[in-house]
Amino acid sequence: MHGKRLNLFCTLSAAATCAITMSPSSDAATLAHQWNFDEVSAGPPYTAAADSVGGANFDEFIGSGYTQGGGVLTSVDADGASLNNFLAGSSGTRALIGSTIDGQGTTGAVTFELVFTQSVTADWAKLLVMGYGEWLGASQSLIAITPKHLATLGGNKLTVEIGALGTPEFTKVETDFVVQDDTEYYLAAEFDDANDLLTMYIGEVGGTLHTFTGAMTYDLGNLNIHGANDGANAGHTSLGGAIFWDNTDWSGEYDQFNIYTGDFSAAEANANFAALIPEPAAAFLLGFGSLMIAGRRKRA
């Protein structure tokens, strides 16, 4: 576990927080859902991953997905089979997240923000999937973030997609970014319906944040994430789950997952990215705050 998550800064005083992060602007995006994966489960029955803001708990651990106090791990079977190991949401969870996304249709925006480490590179494996079906028609549309998209130049680049293949509203933003194994990354993908724009920020923690954009014509209000997480033509709300039966589930660790509504600016992305690495002057305060929390828990 890396332990460098955005929520850590909530344990500090206001002064210490300002020393690490930028002050939010008045038109900052609104945090609608947050999963910190602090729960611990050594084996089945696996612990649910709680949404501390919106109550949309991930409560379906398929296969060997599990929480381990600061990260949820998913692993691929030896045969590379799909739909065996991932974290998903039940119908209640999908309804809550779906309502958040639908509410931003036409005039709003939704942003998915992740801190993750990939352990095994796999063709077509999905870091995140939201939606319904298999890209087969206008009524079966998906949001998908694919670290190794075989249709990109070189066949190994990060790609974000929304909509349904073969329809005018389908949007795909290809990048020249290669996700390396055993490296911690920050990623934020904003689907801005109001401005018809898809923006993705990606960078190695402690490195450089890269920005990629593309025109978006899909209406977020048309995305349907309801239905069971059971493969073809299913409703999908999953971290690590494959879309097609012949695809492989994603393998790695999620340290944090957030969903925002409203305009998520470049300044916010850069501030959140920078916040993963404390300034030297604030590092001592961060450590002190953590020790204080540990001490309180020990005496409780």
Provide tags for this entry.
disordered C terminus; alpha+beta; eight-stranded antiparallel beta sheet; 300 residues; Jelly Rolls
| Share of residues in strands | 25-35%
* Rg of Cα set: 18 Å
Named CATH topology = Jelly Rolls
Helix content: 10-25%
What are the segments in which pLDDT stays under 50 over at least 5 consecutive residues?
1-5, 7-26, 77-83, 229-234, 281-300
- CATH architecture tag: Sandwich
Provide the domain count: 1
Largest sheet, in brief, is: 8 strands, antiparallel
User: In sequence order, what are the helices and strands, one letter per element?
Assistant: HEEEEEHEEEEEEEEEEHH
Q: What's the total count of β strands?
A: 15
The oligomeric state of the chains shown is single chain
Shape category: globular
Compute the number of helices. 4
The CA-CA distance between the termini, in Å, is 25 Å
Structural class: alpha+beta
CATH class group: Mainly Beta
Mean pLDDT: 76
Descriptive notes:
- This protein has 300 residues and is an alpha+beta fold.
- The protein has a single domain, classed as Sandwich (Jelly Rolls).
- The chain is 16% helix and 31% strand.
- It contains 4 helices and 15 strands.
- It has helices at 14-20, 91-102, 266-275, 280-299, and strands spanning 30-35, 60-62, 66-67, 72-74, 86-88, 109-120, 128-132, 142-149, 157-163, 171-174, 184-192, 197-204, 210-215, 235-239, 251-261.
- Strands 1, 3, 4, 6, 11, 12, 13 and 15 form an 8-stranded antiparallel sheet that branches. A 7-stranded antiparallel sheet has the order 2-5-14-7-8-9-10, covered by helices on one side.
- Helix 1 crosses helix 4 (280-299).
- Mean pLDDT is 76; it is low at 1-5, 7-26, 77-83, 229-234 and 281-300.
